[in-house]
């Protein structure tokens, strides 16, 4: 029914027996803004999570680090709960929904990607879209959910997605419904950030969408690679685009 819907309402079958009572009250908005409050399954905790027999159970039995709706706890598992909830509520796989809702209207290929032991498509990683497909997705948001004359996203969804609801404790950037935000050279920028430096930038006031891809091989934390991508946007691409616009 909306982002205020709870797991207890739309996907009660996901909730493990004996789970903390707060789990049933987790809302879709808590998940999409990474404010579920559950202990993260990213970073040092990632291996134990993906090697568990039931990823959803593993996530929902983690201790709460903060109350739901509190500060941002970056966690791939929280995003995976969205995939699981969509699957249970709709009766269709996340892959099927993505192809119907995005693949066909955007005319992009969405290949199958990794699934958990119960067959639920991974909600946080490894969706191997091509740069052109990412560009089409970014343009969908830049054009307020429209593809040509066809409305693909509900009226108001882009603005809702881009509204800052929390702040990343890693970078200080704002965070909405899956989108980060910051100001670069005086321009408001919304960006999606994938593992290893897969970046999608949308700069509405310059009518600009930028895709950058990177070698996803593991790098030392803090090697400066993602910062260099932001610098490339701010020092070269935005001034060039602004000059063309003038």
Give an account of the 3D structure:
- There is one protein chain.
- This protein is of the alpha+beta class.
- The protein is built from 9 helices and 8 strands.
- The protein has a 6-stranded antiparallel sheet.
- The longest helix has 21 residues, at 225-245.
- It is globular, with a radius of gyration of 18 Å.
- The model has no long low-confidence stretch (mean pLDDT 95).
What keyword list fits this structure?
single chain; 246 residues; alpha+beta; six-stranded antiparallel sheet; two-stranded antiparallel ribbon; 35% helix
- The H/E string reads HHHHHHHEEHEEEEEEH
* Rg over CA atoms: 18 Å
Helix content range: 25-40%
Q: Any low-confidence stretches, pLDDT <50, length ≥5?
A: none
- Label the overall shape: globular
Major sheet attributes: 6 strands, antiparallel
Counting helices, strands and paired strands, the structural category is: alpha+beta
Strand order across the largest sheet: 3-4-5-6-7-8
> How many helices does DSSP assign?
9
User: What is the first-to-last residue Cα distance?
Assistant: 44 Å
Mean pLDDT: 95
DSSP E strands, number: 8
Strand content: 5-15%
Question: How is this structure best summarized?
Answer:
The protein is an alpha+beta fold and 246 residues long. The protein has helices spanning 7-10, 28-32, 46-50, 55-60, 76-90, 94-106, 131-142, 157-162, 225-245, and strands spanning 146-147, 150-151, 166-167, 174-175, 180-184, 187-194, 198-203, 208-212.
């Amino acid at each position: 029914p909306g982002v205020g819907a709870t797991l207890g309402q739309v996907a009660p079958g996901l909730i493990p027996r004996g789970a903390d009572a707060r789990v049933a009250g987790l809302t879709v908005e808590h998940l999409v803004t990474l404010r579920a409050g559950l202990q993260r399954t990213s970073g040092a905790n990632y291996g134990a999570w993906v090697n568990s027999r039931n990823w959803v159970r593993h996530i929902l039995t983690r201790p709460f680090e903060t109350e739901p709706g509190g500060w941002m706890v970056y966690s791939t598992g929280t995003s995976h709960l969205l995939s699981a909830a969509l699957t249970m509520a709709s009766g269709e796989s996340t892959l099927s929904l993505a192809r119907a809702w995005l693949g066909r209207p955007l005319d992009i290929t969405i290949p199958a990607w990794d699934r958990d032991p119960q067959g639920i498509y991974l909600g946080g990683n490894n969706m191997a879209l091509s740069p052109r497909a990412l560009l089409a997705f970014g343009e969908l948001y830049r054009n307020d959910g429209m593809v040509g004359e066809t409305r693909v996203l509900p009226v108001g969804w882009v603005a809702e997605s881009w509204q800052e609801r929390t702040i990343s404790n890693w970078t200080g950037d704002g965070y909405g419904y899956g989108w980060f935000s910051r100001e670069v050279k005086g321009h408001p920028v919304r960006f999606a950030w994938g593992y290893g430096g897969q970046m999608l930038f949308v700069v509405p006031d310059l009518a600009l969408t930028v895709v950058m891809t990177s070698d996803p091989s593991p790098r030392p934390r803090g090697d400066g690679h993602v910062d260099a991508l932001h610098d490339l946007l701010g020092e070269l691409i935005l001034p060039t685009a602004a000059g063309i616009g003038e």
